[in-house]
Amino acid sequence: MEGTAPLTPYDPTSVARWVPEPDKRPGRTAFQRDRARVLHSAALRRLAGKTQVVTPGRTDQTWDASPRTRLTHSLECAQVGRELGEALGCDPDLVEAACLSHDLGHPPFGHNGEQALNEFAADCGGFEGNAQSLRLLTRIEPKRFTEERSVGLNLTRAALDAATKYPWPRGAHPADPDSPKFGVYEDDRPVFDWVREGAPAARTCFEAQVMDWSDDVAYSVHDVEDGLHAGHIDPACLLADPERRAVFEVAAARYAPADTDPGELAEALDRLLAQDWWPHGYDGTAIAQARLKDATSQLIGRFCLAAERATRAAYGGGRLTRYTAELVVPRATRMECAVLKAVADRYVMQRAEQERLRADQQVVVLELAEGLTRRAPYGLDPQFRALFDRAPDDRARKRVLVDQIASLTDASARSLHARLT
């Protein structure tokens, strides 16, 4: 396999850092250093306190479901991405660093907290978890600094580019100007422009595409696994027409291309149901858990091998890096992935309990933002208090408040909310 061949260094512009610095220990590659910096960061550790889908301790069954957190999801995404990237000729440390970084900017309560913070930050540039990740990597996470300010982890240009899912500012989505997805705030444009120097406009690099697909694979498969563990998903429901139609409606609305026919989604689900390893039942016994774990492994392998084979068929057997190729994921594979996402959405995220929890979380974030606005710098960590004191205007001060809230875990957000309100 091509990915087993010795890897040569990337070009000098790819391994450049925003602030040049000497190697502490000769012999390590630039991307090994990038991976280590992300792995040892406080921001990555904080993801252990952020819920993925199923909240720990909230289960309808008696067994310990041990649901995933944002941290365990990021570690699993990194394992998937590292192997897929290496098989396609990417530097494995570079892809792993990008996968470990991809959720660092997510605020407490995940996408729900993201929506609340975007509402609060509407007059200072909005909020987007991916733009916040870039800000954290290049400004907030304490690691390297100049006389003027922190430069975050000071990763290489290639690592920052590989961690960028949406390489455009707010309102500049190449196909949908109304899209809420973007990857950089205006005051982070200097480092973003440096990262993107020479890159095709609005195009993600190959390593970022591998990271993005690995994220999709990991969370689509593992969210269903966690939903089964917690007793929220009954596999038998996927055989009943009313339930199937509901799943396909969710998939078509949120996870599949706009031109998707429901028949495609039905065929995708039926392909999965026809596999020998598909979990048609789950009772929490050791045998059931082992069968479910085998199913998750089979699904991950199925999705990754489909992308690897299709990409190799399109681009041959050489090393695929940066802007020399596009990751090819067969449409049928994307349909299968979309159906899995919809199953978790329908039976886990749309539960009445989750709706009530999300409403409460929105209140916590917005009241926390209002409380900090009234009482800052009280309530700010020393790092953000210093930035607040040095901020030149109200817009910059509000951005500091957003940075503070985004850095919190679910529990610390509730604790600070209680202190301020």
Automatic annotation (TrEMBL):
Could you identify this protein by its name? Deoxyguanosinetriphosphate triphosphohydrolase-like protein
What residue spans carry the region label Disordered? 1-29
The protein's organism comes out as Streptomyces fumanus
TM segments?
Answer: none
GO molecular function term, any single one? dGTPase activity
Q: Name any Gene Ontology BP term.
A: dGTP catabolic process
> Do you know which SUPFAM superfamilies this protein is assigned to?
HD-domain/PDEase-like (SSF109604)
Organism classification: Bacteria, Bacillati, Actinomycetota, Actinomycetes, Kitasatosporales
User: Where do Basic and acidic residues bias regions lie?
Assistant: 20-29
